[in-house]
Design a protein that fits this description.
Distance between the termini: 79 Å
Number of strands: 7
Order of helices and strands: HHHHHHEHEEEEHEE
Radius of gyration: 30 Å
Oligomer: single chain
Number of domains: 2
Structural class: alpha+beta
Strand content: 5-15%
Length: 268
Amino acid sequence: MLTIITLTGLLSNPLYSANGYSPSERRTLQSAVEMSLQDAELNRFQQFCINRYPESAMAKVYPQSPITKRQDLLQQKLKMTDLSAITLIDRKMTSYVKNSITELNDCEDYQSYQVLLDKYELTVFSLEIATELKKAPITADASNKQLAASKSAEIKKLIERSNAIALVSISDRQLLNVIEQANFLHIDYDSRYIFKVNQGWKNMTPTYMGMHVAIDDTTISNTASEWLVFLDHNKHFIEAVKKNDASMHLRLLAKPDWQFDNQGNLIR
């Protein structure tokens, strides 16, 4: 039995991912993911029936096409041969495709098996006529590792060119007396809110400093309460990162070189 399925739906649906590839290359990736997941479900079901119900119709079905044929196809189209690794290229795409594959459970239901087998054979055909990728895709995990390495290198450069680095929290300038405000804040700084320095790295900073952005009573509730700030030799801001977004920065900085206690005393 052969179920008639058109290629239009298979090849025209927008994909969820694989950034950096052309639309035709993304369709190639989706066909490869479909082939991998369909192949896995067909083999899982047949092996299940062989083990549990050796006299069932499914236990007597001939094996699928040799794995070498699928590997040759993947090598030609995607420059890779590991069928299972295809599903790791993009997790959103894999989840999208997986939801469209019906799980087989009844070892006497040969018709459902045949429907999935027909879809699988059509997927193989669509991959055979698909556009070859110019380079082998990388898995989502490998891509994330590359991005993390790039981000780490960028942060290291930021640390190197900073004269001082401090972990700060927002405070009210009204907690300072007139002399303290004159000592810590620029004469033109007129915002009510300032930074209180808690700890730092490299050269020491003043206990208090003006913020890098102007906030007031209407915007403070939407402003992060703690920041990691990077300063140049003139104590000007190079960059300010919300503490919640600075986990990698703090991990690279490790133990602080100095800190202030609750009374503002310096501790090295």
